[in-house]
Design a protein that fits this description.
The chain is an all-alpha fold and 401 residues long. The chain contains 17 helices and no strands.
């Protein structure tokens, strides 16, 4: 594998780290700015909404820009956003920095996938893309816990300074290792936009946003849930987040493998499992052992949904799928924003730190119902377009018409 893939993976690691780094530092951020924990949790929502806007807009606006130049520009924006967050004197400016760094997220992974695939032989494309996304997955195992440790020992700002360093390393790697290729002839915004004329594509995006939303309704508030409800110390959050990250790695890998064998069945199985685990977490969060087990399983089934949901929306595009792929990343993050907000609403209403779990289960259940509608529409569409059997006689009316 070319060294350029390492540069992409490091950049993905930095981007993945900054996405959820505030989840382990909600108490510190809330105390510093004198806001409630649910208000601090909105920093996750703000980031997610930045991805929602940035993924389709930047991807659509840069179809004629050389991919290496675009990746460099996106990493510069990422670094700038985290610099703003690191020095922010107010909560509002911290939110601004979060949104700025989020704008590059969806476009980076959309373009980075294309670049990674182009760096290797045709029979190694999937492995190259997987290697780049390993950086994102490892961010949940290593980056987020490391950021939590930095923030708890040296102040939450130290976590953002650490992300800035990661961004600079990734930027230098892209500048020196990623080859500069001319813009492809087939880069065509009109062809990319054609997929959005299909109702099924929009329905698939809705399944992604709503089905995945339940995970972030719960996980955004995992720190107070594990400390105030399960009874863990704040110092335990680091290894708990690492355990959750291992669940993500396992789920992401197994979800992709299963989707290759039976895409629709995998989507339904994992969404139903996600809703069930979230509902179960409402009860198991009150015991340390069961809370730890449920947290690991939650990460596995939650992130296991990503490969099949991403694959389905790209298949439904039926043509160029770069913009549709970026839009689905935006859908994941829109779901994350809504889930984090709804989880905070239940806490503010005095329903306790476990309430985001059952709210998440309800949201994901709505996503399951939408998936049923989507698959039903797809099957009816196939039946209506299927040619008549050659053995079926053609009848005429009594009048011979």
């Amino acid at each position: 594998m070319p060294l350029a893939l390492l540069a992409l993976a490091i950049s993905a690691f930095g981007i993945g780290t900054t996405e959820f780094v505030t989840n382990g530092l909600l108490p510190e951020v809330a105390a510093d700015f004198d806001v409630s924990i649910p208000t601090a949790g909105l920093l996750t929502s703000g980031y997610a909404l930045g991805v929602v806007v940035g993924a389709p807009v930047l991807t659509a606006a840069t179809t004629r820009v050389r991919r290496k130049h675009l990746l460099v520009g996106l990493m510069l924006l990422f670094i700038a956003g985290n610099l703003v967050a690191a020095v922010a004197p107010t909560y509002g400016l911290l939110m601004t920095g979060r949104v700025l760094s989020a704008l590059c997220h969806g476009a980076f992974f959309g373009v980075g996938s294309v670049v990674a695939a182009g760096l290797v032989a045709p029979d190694k494309k999937a492995g190259a893309i997987s290697l780049m996304f390993t950086g994102l997955t490892l961010a949940n195992v290593l980056g987020m816990p490391m950021g939590t440790v930095l923030g708890q020992h040296f102040g939450w700002r130290a976590a953002f300074w650490g992300v800035v360093v990661l961004g600079l390393i990734g930027l230098l790697g892209i500048m020196t290792l990623v080859p500069s290729e001319p813009v492809a002839e087939e880069s065509n915004l009109r062809a990319e936009l054609a997929a959005f004329r299909k109702p099924q594509v929009w329905l698939a995006l809705a399944v992604t946003a709503i089905g995945f939303s339940g995970l972030l309704a719960s996980f955004t508030y995992v720190t107070p849930m594990m400390t105030d409800v399960a009874g863990f110390s704040e110092s335990s959050i680091t290894w708990l987040l690492a355990l959750y990250g291992l669940g993500l790695v396992a789920g992401n890998y197994l979800g992709g493998k299963a989707a290759d064998r039976a895409l629709t069945a995998t989507i339904f199985t994992l969404l139903i499992a996600l809703a069930a685990v979230l509902l179960l977490f409402t009860v198991t969060a009150h015991n340390k052992v069961t809370a730890v087990i449920t947290l690991f399983v939650l990460g596995g089934v939650g992130f296991g949904t990503i490969p099949p949901l991403q694959t389905r929306v790209m298949q439904l595009a039926g043509g160029p799928a770069t913009l549709v792929s970026a839009a689905n990343i935006a859908a994941f993050n829109l779901g994350a924003a809504v889930g984090a907000w709804l989880g905070g609403v239940t806490i503010d209403a005095g329903l306790g730190y476990t309430s985001p779990n059952w709210v998440g289960a309800v949201i994901t259940s709505v996503g399951i119902l939408l998936a049923v509608v989507s698959v039903g529409m797809e099957r009816r569409g196939r039946q209506s377009t299927a040619p008549a059997s050659p053995s079926t006689p053609v009848t005429t009316s009594a009048s011979g018409g």
